[in-house]
Amino acid sequence: MNWNVVHYKTNSGNSPVIDYIETQEPERVRKIRNALRLLREFGIEESQLNARKLSGRRYKGLYELRIDSTRIIYFLFTGRRFVLVHGFTKKSKETPKRELEVARKRMKDYAGD
Hints:
The protein has 113 residues and is α+β, with helices and mostly antiparallel strands. The protein has one domain: RelE-like (YaeB-like fold), CATH 3.30.2310. Helices cover 35% and strands 27% of the residues. It contains three helices and five strands. The chain has helices spanning 16-22, 26-42, 97-111, and strands at residues 4-7, 51-53, 62-67, 70-77, 81-89. The mean pLDDT is 92.
């Protein structure tokens, strides 16, 4: 049974994750689309999916999908729905707090908190 993968949209109707993906090179876009396909088809059970829960109480519920240096942050919403809230290219060992905060704020906005 497939999972729903939806994109967070801003008040103006833009999807930051789609906007991010569209700026990437074609080979990276192909890899991102493949990872999202695996997420849609298998959800949290896919062993080939390079994803992890983000650590820290502040980021509870957020997951990071890793595709080379690309990161897509998402969360599980009611039922079988993943909401993609943020995409960025990781350039250092630590995930920048500003990227985590953007994702956290979008999750709270989507969930109505």
